[in-house]
Design brief:
The chain is of the alpha/beta class. The protein has 17 helices and 11 strands. Strand 8 and strand 9 form a beta hairpin. The protein is globular.
Amino acid sequence: MFRLFKHYVPHAVVWLALLEFFALLGSAEAAWHLYAHQAGFDAGPLADRGLPLATFAVANSLAMMATGMYGNEGLRSMRFATARLLAAISLGVIFLSVLGFLLPTATLWRANSLYAMVLAIAALFVIRLVLTQSAGTEAFRRRILVLGAGPRAARLAALAEQPGSGLEVVGFVAMSDTEKTVGHAVRREAIANLSDHVVALRAGEVVLALEERRNALPLNDLLRVKTTGVHVNDIASFIERETGRVDLATTNPSGLIFSDGFSAGQRISKVGKRLFDIAASLIVLIVGLPLILVAGIAVILDSRGPVFYRQPRVGLFGEPYDIYKIRSMRTDAEAEGKAVWASENDPRVTRVGRIIRTLRIDELPQLWCVLKGEMSFVGPRPERPSFVEELEKQLPYYAERHMVKPGLTGWAQINYPYGASVEDARVKLEYDLYYAKNYSPFLDLLILLQTVRVVLWPDGAR
């Protein structure tokens, strides 16, 4: 796993992304020569067209990330990858068209762009086809050996069995007589040399999943394994890395305190994030104003009541503030005066409300909160005070999610769209803690790109 700005990415995915980036560069360069040959002019030195070629490759690479081509489904299914590839290149061309209008010298000419798009689709299709036909998903699978045979080890087995996990558990080692949950685990006493056992199984990583670690850590075994070049990790860090969540079941306060993370308060990060929020919210507010007006008219025609509504939420450091949204529910949605969880296919949502929720248009007025500094573009979803009061009693570390500003979109929103119960709130809290712990501008960029995927393929809007 590569660690890019605190966020882990599998080696195979990084190499695939680099390969496809150079394929995009090659497609743009080939398109330039093809057009030059047809038009009868000299292609000229590479340096003269370096910027347009790089712009084409970068724009389409980002579009591929945004459409989920490097997610589990995009790596497993050729059909899924092909559909998202066409969407990604289309998004890239739209962005380049807008950029070409503003900065003509930064992009390819129209004919070049058309040729480059066709060549890029063909090249990327061949790369994915060769990958799936030769290496298949095995290129993205990682072999792990689990030390432990109790409930924690069983959780790792269940994690590896999930579709697209990218994990293969090659064995379990029962480190004590009390660990009996995993019945087929090999007893430690039956293994003469653990490091040789790890090498024989071709395990790339050993995960420590003991139920009780006090005075039970096999330090000599772990040291020998480490010296063979095999990575050793504990279960909490491993699950966090693999799932993008801080696992509440295996995390303890000392693990959070002494781990690397929670640096969102650094001055440079705060200033950069705030400048981005101001610029982005102004641009999106100006561009989205016609959508707000159209949605407002549709709300008036569809149901009685105000166009906008204001609702209290809990913000940074637990301070309350009011958010603004376009009304998407009936005015009697909470007639009893008690906050109610939104549910899938919520009957309180109006006809127009269902559309604007799916397209996220109802969220646009919250940009005013971003502009004022009460929210950020990226951060945990702000919750209502009554829900926060209830969840802080039931979920550990819930107050820690308020150490960063709430956002319009976030790590939890793109990974776990539904939140209609305490259990859903628990899962989303795990994602929120991961974001707060591993915040970086790079992670914000990934979230913004993946938000495009959620908007284009709504699978959880409420």
